[in-house]
Design a protein that fits this description.
- With 263 residues, the protein is of the alpha/beta class.
- The protein has a single domain, classed as Vaccinia Virus protein VP39 (Rossmann fold, 3-Layer(aba) Sandwich).
- Helices cover 40% and strands 21% of the residues.
- The chain is built from ten helices and eleven strands.
- Strands 3, 4, 5, 6, 7, 8, 9, 10 and 11 form a nine-stranded mixed β-sheet that branches. A two-stranded antiparallel sheet has the order 1-2.
- β3, α4 and β4 form a beta-alpha-beta unit.
- It is globular.
Length: 263
């Protein structure tokens, strides 16, 4: 990454987070401890505690039909599957064939036959889902592809790809996926939208755009700072959801989440 590109990256997030950015940046560079998933698994699986909170926030119940739209590498799918306990249906989707292979390995290596018998792995374009299935699912988890600034800070390859235009493009892609999720979920069903981005464009900005176009179809459910799925994590309220930021959570996060209910 050129010095000019790096300066642009620094300036972009400094403008958003002001003096807080220095501490956020420093902690994002460090490797943080993962949460150990073990209940009802064949072997332990480690993932970010904030990512676990996002999956739990969907509040999946036995017997429901559930879609994990961007499921790889698979940690959230494991949480959804153990909540279903082999009942209902779970579609775990990822468009990337490489990521899908990893997803299959995670499912096969961590879930018993009973808990994976109701799982279907697919490779569809999430942004086009609503063209083929409408009003099908009780619950949808959309953990959208995002800027993932933690990876940007740790990888020269990711640094080279980053630009203000990229975060805008990712927000457009996420909006298309979220609109497709609205089509695919049943009336009365729930969508949990999440990202690991620090960019407001990819978080509240995506919800804002959806509401401007489809407010007749969805309501936003207020997420409490005292919600049980947060457990020991500290979250901050945003316009539409919650943001778990690593400087306040011993390195956990960032995770943005918002719950939408289809009318």
């Amino acid at each position: 990454m050129s010095k000019k590109q790096k300066k642009t990256f620094e300036s972009y997030y400094s403008e958003i987070y002001k003096s807080r950015w220095t501490e956020l940046k420093d902690i994002l560079i460090k490797d943080s401890d993962g949460f150990c998933l073990s209940d009802n698994l064949l072997q332990n699986y480690y993932l970010d505690p904030a990512s676990r909170a996002a999956a739990l926030a969907l509040n999946v119940q036995q017997g429901e039909s559930v879609l994990d739209m961007c499921a790889a590498p698979g940690g959230k799918t494991l949480i959804l599957a153990t909540a279903l306990r082999g009942t209902g249906t779970l579609v775990s989707n990822d468009r990337s064939s490489d990521r899908r292979r990893r997803l299959k390995d995670v499912i096969n290596n961590h879930l018993s036959e009973k808990f994976r018998q109701n799982i279907t792995i697919t490779g569809h374009d999430a942004a086009k889902w609503g063209l083929f299935e409408q009003n099908i699912y009780d619950k949808i988890l959309l953990d959208a592809p995002c800027s993932s600034e933690a990876h940007v800070l740790k990888s020269s390859t990711h640094l080279q790809r980053w630009s203000p235009a990229r975060t805008k493009q990712l927000s457009i892609q996420a909006h298309a996926m979220l609109a497709a999720a609205v089509d695919a979920v049943k009336p009365g069903g729930v969508i949990l939208y999440s990202t690991c981005s620090l960019s407001p464009l990819e978080n509240d900005g995506v919800i804002d755009k959806l509401l401007k176009k489809r407010s007749d179809l969805v309501d936003i459910e207020n997420l409490s700072l005292n919600s049980g799925f947060l457990e020991d994590l500290s979250a901050e309220s945003t316009k539409y959801g919650l943001h778990i930021l690593p400087d306040k959570n011993n390195g956990a996060g960032p995770i943005f989440m918002a719950r939408l209910i289809k009318k």
